[in-house]
Amino acid sequence: MLGSLYLQQDEGFDQGQGVSYSGGYRSVFMKKMKYRLLISLVLLMPALGLAGFDEAEEANRAGDRETAFMEYKLAALNGDIRAFGKLGGLYLHGVGTPKDPVMAYVWFGLSDLAGDRYAKGYQDAVAGIMTSAQFETAKERLAEYREKLGLSKKPEDQ
Fold first, then answer.
1. For residues 9 and 139, what is the distance between their CA atoms, to the nearest angstrom?
2. Model pTM above 0.85
3. 91 within 8 A of 97, measured Cβ to Cβ
4. How far apart are the first and last CA of the chain?
5. Contact residues for 60 (Cβ-Cβ < 8 A; gap 6+)
6. Do 22 and 9 touch, CB atoms closer than 8 A?
7. Residue 18, beta-bridge partner list
8. Which end of the chain is more exposed for a tag (fewer CB within 10 A), N or C?
9. Residue 14, SS3?
10. 111, 101, 122, 102: which is closest to 146 by C-alpha?
11. Ramachandran class of 110: left when φ > 0, alpha when ψ lies in -120 to 50, beta otherwise
């Protein structure tokens, strides 16, 4: 199939040298390849976002906490809301990553915004163990991540 895109004439074919493209055929070939690549990327985008979460779950079940953390983070940064609370828990307990109450607060906050009914309780618990400086940093980071991920405030907060 691929050969039919550019081997439509013998002109430019030199045995032992491979195929050299003539101007018109090369541009047709490149346009078709760009179009196919674009279509492939559009069709694969949703699957790519889900793959990080599924791989994280698999790594977590296998006991590979570092890989699970990296995959949950990848999924979360790609907008997979299922990973938000899991990432918060990993940061809170230092599983697969060093303990970081600021980032735990951020991810539990994002999980709350995404509709997780338990996340606010965890976020409040994390806030109780932070210093005031950490709390201020956490609120700023939460706003940054909320904007980066396109999450708006919950209706009751507006």
1. 64
2. no
3. yes
4. 56
5. 68
6. yes
7. 14
8. N
9. strand
10. 111
11. alpha
Residue type at 5? L
Residue 12 in 3-state DSSP? Answer: coil
Residue 30: predicted pLDDT? 60
Tokens 């606010």 belong to residue = 120
Domain ranges of the chain: 46-157
| Three-point CA angle 17, 21, 25, nearest 5° | 150
Would you say 107 and 91 are in contact if contact means Cβ atoms under 8 Å apart? yes
3-state SS assignment for residue 115: coil
Beta bridge partners of residue 14, listed in sequence order? 18
Number of helices followed by number of strands (H, E) in the chain: 7, 2
Give the list of residues 6+ apart from residue 106 with CB closer than 8 angstroms, or none.
88, 138, 141, 142, 145
Is-contact 29 21, C-beta < 8 A?
A: yes
**Kind and range of the H or E element at 36?**
helix 23-61
Chain centroid to CA 106: how far?
A: 16
Q: Which residue stretches of the chain have pLDDT < 70?
A: 1-51, 153-158
